[in-house]
Amino acid sequence: MINVYPASSRHSGDLGWLQFNFSFSFADYYDPDNVNFGPLRVFNEDYIQPSRGFGIHPHRDMEIVTVVLKGELKHEDNTGGAGLIRPGEVQRMTAGSGILHSEVNASDTEVANLLQMWFLPEAKGLTPSYEQKAFDQGAMRNTLLPIVSNTIQGESIVSIHQDMSIYLSEPDAGTSIHYEGSASRKIFLFVMRGEVTLNGTHTLGRSDSARITDLAKLEIRSEQGAQFMLIDLPGIE
Question: Can the keyword Iron be found in this entry's annotation (predicted)?
Answer without folding.
Answer: yes
